[in-house]
Amino acid sequence: MKKQPTRGARPSALLAGLLAASTLAAGCSIALVTSRRASPPSEGVRGCTTEYTAPILDSLLFVPSVAVAGLGLAGGADVPRSFGIGVGLVGAVVFAASAVYGYGAVSDCRDAYARTGKPLPD
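-> structure tokens emitted (122 positions)
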């Protein structure tokens, strides 16, 4: 019996594709957060990131990564098992590591501002 073609990608396949693309771009915090140690010495605390936006995005992207891995393990929907597991686990590890780095770097930067008595930038 011939398999009927589908008219559009199912949401799980779209989620897997988007997650695969975002995983290749690495985590937001790894790409966007500047730690106090990585900022130029001439800038002091001014060169580090004080906003939690990137680590929060990493945390939010961690959840669908785990969902895709779960779909792969369960063999659900249109996600091939090895693709779902591979992309899901790689995405989960990348986004979790990026979030941990981002939260730590931003917290360290905010602590440095508090120690110097300078107000956080707007």
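DSSP finds four helices and no strands in the chain.
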